[in-house]
Hints:
The chain is mainly alpha-helical and 93 residues long. The protein has two helices and two strands, in the order H-H-E-E. A two-stranded antiparallel sheet has the order 1-2. A hairpin with a 4-residue loop joins strand 1 and strand 2 (71-72). The longest helix is centred in the first third of the chain and has 22 residues, at 2-23. The termini are far apart.
Amino acid sequence: MSEQRGERDEESREQGEAEEAEQEGARQPGADPEEADEIAADREERLDPDNRPENVEVDNTDRDFDAEKGMFTDSEGYEQAEERFPPPGEQGV
């Protein structure tokens, strides 16, 4: 019986949270156009190369990716890796 009460308490709590969010006008973050400048500034700060941790590779544009092996061609173990995925033209068929 206490198990049923616990389930009801949980359902009641979840319903209360949902109602509270609805009353507060829950919305997707960034949906308010007034926040656009703040969001842009935050994004710029996060993407600034000076804010990146050292020894972190972020830019892979100069690297070649082998979709059939699922790894970059300059990755350790690439030469020994087996092809595990279908060629890009045959994927999702």
